[in-house]
Amino acid sequence: MLQKAHFWKREANLIGGEWVGADSGKTIDVVNPATGETIGTVPNAGKAETERAIAAAEKAFESFRKTTAAERAKLLRDLHDAIMDNQDPLAELLTMEQGKPLAESRGEVGMSAAYVLWFAEEARRVYGDMVPSPWADRRIMVTKQPVGVIAAITPWNFPSSMLSRKIGPAIAAGCTAVVKPATATPYSGLAWGALCQEVGIPDGVVNIVTGSAREIGGAIMESPVVKKVTFTGSTDVGKVLLKQAADTVKKVSMELGGNAPFLVFDDADIDRAVAGGIAAKYRNSGQTCVCTNRFYVQAGIYDRFAEKFAAAAKELKVGSGLEEGTQQGPLIDEGAVEKVEELIADAVDKGGNIVAGGKRHELGGSFFEPTVIAGATPDMRFSKEEIFGPVSPLFKFETEEEGIRLANDTDFGLACYFYTQDLGRTFRVSEALEYGLVGVNEGVITTEVAPFGGMKESGLGREGSKYGIDDYLEIKYVCIGGLGM
Ligand code: NAP
Predict the structure, then answer these.
(1) CB burial readout 262-276, b (16+ within 10 A) else e
(2) Is the sign of the CA dihedral 177, 182, 183, 185 positive or negative?
(3) In this predicted structure, what is the pLDDT of residue 6?
(4) How far is the CA of 154 from the centre of ligand 1 (A)?
């Protein structure tokens, strides 16, 4: 059923099927980054509310674990339909709290629905095994069961689709969930609760709490009831959660930070590389974990690429995400702008040459010009740090080996991209790059059917694809003896 955006904007938490405020009555303002206006509030909940959410999830698990795969698949198909029926209002809500252009928000909401549908299908394919027995009178059966109560903690840059990769497989597997959306963008997360209710997902299966990250996170991590934590966010917070998970030996899935390289070889189709580079960098104003952080361009093509790329960056239309034709919205907040300014100042100090943008946009607020910096060198901060803003440093390299070495010279290993028309190089380079996702002649590669996740300090586990449900399942071996054979 189609509803307006304000219907989905829930200013309360969902615990055991009830929409409730914080015990203290305190709230947190939610701000539209394009205008600086407060668009509403959400509860500033903490430990006690989270413990009740965990208890509600534990209670719901008793019956939800007994539902059939077909029943859960139907709930997920209905959830998919409800999301798609409301794609426009949900996209509007997302743009209001997050800032990204409406077209990107519609794409994100569509992607959320696609993940849900994928896991509706996967729910029915959680097969076990009968293993050939080494004993004549025993049989060996392997089954898969839901892990139990899971907790999901998500970031502000994809407030809808990061949850679909977690709520989708959790429901498919028969788990129940406690969810904590990012404080900057809570409404897209809370909307999941309203959508779940709309399609009849039982009370307590999905519980959503907003407020103090430390208190909510602490209650989740110390609870022996929560069997698994799935986190998407920064590597720093991921490391804290990994340490906290040790005390109760929770399963963990970690989708953490990135430092994506984008290599352009001399033999690349330069126009395709420019278009792919723009998409891989400036989507969501550079605020995605798979956004290019470092462009490495081979010496023979460097000047031509830099010229065309800077020209394309200057063409991007910056504005409110709600305005038709906007290609780049504001950054999430003032802090993000200051970080981008610091990284640019550091690069200029060390000899970088700004060839596009370089400063705050004339629109003011947290709008920033799409920026390109030529002459980037390894001592500049952005060669190691995640920029998370619309800044493209262009580094030069000479040989294939050097390009690969520079691309891998980071603690991160989420996404990488390279452009070449040489088939041998395609295989050599894609096998040598230490990344979980590799785009060859493509700048945007996320899809629900392929595994998403990082190597090294970019994370643990994979989301989406046929692998994305594994982390929500326990494998059980049952030995049936005394068969009298
Ligand atoms: P963040 O600061 O790590 O926050 C992510 C989530 O963790 C938020 O909900 C945050 O709550 C919560 N949090 C913060 N401190 C916590 C604590 N001590 N205990 C429990 N929860 C805590 O990351 P962000 O700035 O929102 O997102 C940007 C980062 O996410 C980037 O590094 C990006 O690369 C990464 N990311 C990775 C992927 C991936 O799939 N690999 C996808 C998207 C983003 P509050 O909002 O209340 O602070």
Answers:
(1) bbbbbebebeebbeb
(2) negative
(3) 87
(4) 6
Measured CA to CA, the distance from residue 13 to residue 48 in angstroms comes to 13
| Annotated catalytic residue 479 | no
Give the strand pairing for 353-356 and 27-31. unpaired
- Adjacent-strand bridge partners of 133: none
Select which of 49, 92, 104, 255 is catalytic: 255
Neighbours of 482 (CB within 10 A): 7
* Residue 32: DSSP 8-state: -
Would you call 65 helix, strand, or coil by DSSP? coil
Nearest CA to ligand 1 atom 9: 182
Q: Which residue minimizes the CA distance to atom 40 of ligand 1?
A: 255
Residue that is written with structure tokens 């002459």 in the block: 375
Give dist(CA 480, CA 340) in Å, integer: 62
Considering only CA atoms, which of 156, 145, 205 is closest in space to residue 179? Answer: 205
C-beta 397 within 6 A of ligand 1: no
Flag whether pLDDT at 1 surpasses 80.
no
Determine which helix (DSSP H) or strand (DSSP E) holds 313, and give its type and residue range: helix 302-315
133 with 211: CB under 8 angstroms? no
pTM for this entry: 0.97
Q: Is there a catalytic annotation at residue 291?
A: no
At 188, the amino acid letter reads: S
CB 459 less than 6 A from any atom of ligand 1 = yes
For residues 132-159, average pLDDT: 98
pLDDT tens digit sequence for 280-304 = 999 999 999 999 999 999 999 999 9
How many Cα neighbours within 13 Å face the side chain of 63? 9
Element (H, E) at 78: helix 69-85
Q: What is the pLDDT of residue 366?
A: 97
How far apart, in whole angstroms, are the C-alpha atoms of residue 383 and residue 334?
Answer: 23
Closest to 155 in 3D by CA, of 328, 253, 289: 289
Provide the total of helices (H) and of strands (E) in the chain, helices listed first.
Answer: 14, 22
Q: Is the CB of 78 under 6 A from ligand 1?
A: no
For 316-456, where are the alpha helices, taking DSSP H only?
334-349, 400-408, 423-432
Q: What interhelical angle do 102-123 and 69-85 show, nearest 10?
A: 170
Q: Nearest to residue 170, comparing CAs of 203, 128, 123, 133?
A: 123
Encode pLDDT of 315-330 as tens digits: 999 999 999 999 999 9
